[in-house]
Write a sequence for this structure.
């Protein structure tokens, strides 16, 4: 369906796709003002089939050899997809990106496709991870959403790659590339994210056994001559089910990441971050209760 207005927008985004600034007639295109869109993610306004690839497009923009032009299908407020020419550049602040969308897509239909980008797995926060999971399942009909698992994968050899680098300085980089290639194959809707160095979170179908994922990672390491001991693979899984509520999803993501504590890793979920303050408050309350009790006894 042809639109009566011109598609000409300029977005300033962070690495997760959150809108930091926008210029253009957003009301006609997206049903919201530019001010209302600031702080939201651009991803829901991208055709569902291209969202995962757009995340990878953003992730590769810091590379000197980055692809900076492609075709992107934007979903309008009328829920129709409109082909736009995407042109990107790095923003003035680290981790920010300028994205320009124009109507020139028809003339430049051969500019490239997002699906073919050799981009790295995105590094995300816990909040961004939840948002990506929600979007991965939100637009599928209930009967098309498979039971899903969320698996936290720790590669000890990448968290501390000293032993691997001692064999060959290039090995950690090659291992990371092979690990990420394997995980992308197993990911549901391409949702596989880097939380910290060597620590990945993978959304996958329940039918994809964790043992099979582990076997793929071990084979990738063995191809590079890296032993299972040096790989130091740990995996922990929680069951998301078919379509968890937002509160349930937050609890399950936190649970999955908190499981890392069993391996002695530092974690940065809100629960763990504010735990010292919580316990300090509890301790202070106990001291006051004891003091009041002693006063009454006297």
């Amino acid at each position: 369906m042809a639109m009566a207005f011109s598609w000409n927008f300029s977005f300033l985004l962070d690495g997760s796709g959150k809108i930091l600034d926008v210029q253009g007639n957003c009301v006609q295109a997206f049903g919201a003002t530019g001010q209302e869109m600031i702080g939201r993610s651009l991803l829901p306004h991208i055709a569902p089939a291209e969202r995962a690839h757009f995340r990878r497009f953003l992730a590769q923009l810091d590379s000197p050899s980055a692809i900076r032009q492609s075709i992107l299908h934007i979903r309008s407020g009328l829920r129709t997809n409109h082909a736009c020419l995407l042109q990107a550049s790095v923003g003035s602040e680290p981790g920010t990106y300028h994205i320009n969308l124009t109507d020139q897509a028809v003339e430049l239909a051969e500019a490239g496709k997002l699906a073919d980008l050799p981009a790295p797995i995105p590094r995300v926060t816990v909040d961004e991870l939840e948002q990506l999971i929600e979007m991965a399942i939100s637009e599928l009909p209930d009967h098309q959403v498979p039971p899903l698992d969320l698996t936290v994968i720790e590669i000890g050899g990448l968290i501390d790659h000293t032993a691997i680098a001692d064999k060959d300085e290039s090995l950690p980089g090659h291992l990371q590339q092979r690990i990420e290639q394997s995980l992308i194959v197993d990911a549901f809707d391409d949702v596989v994210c880097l939380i910290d160095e060597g620590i990945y979170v993978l959304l996958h179908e329940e039918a994809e056994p964790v043992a099979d994922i582990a076997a793929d990672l071990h084979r990738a390491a063995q191809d590079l001559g890296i032993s299972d001991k040096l790989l130091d693979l740990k995996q922990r899984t929680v069951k998301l089910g078919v379509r968890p509520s937002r509160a349930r999803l937050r609890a399950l993501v936190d649970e999955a990441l908190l499981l890392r504590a069993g391996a002695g890793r530092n974690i940065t979920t809100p629960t763990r971050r504010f735990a010292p303050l919580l316990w300090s408050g509890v301790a202070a309350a106990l001291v006051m209760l004891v003091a009041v009790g002693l006063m009454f006894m006297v």
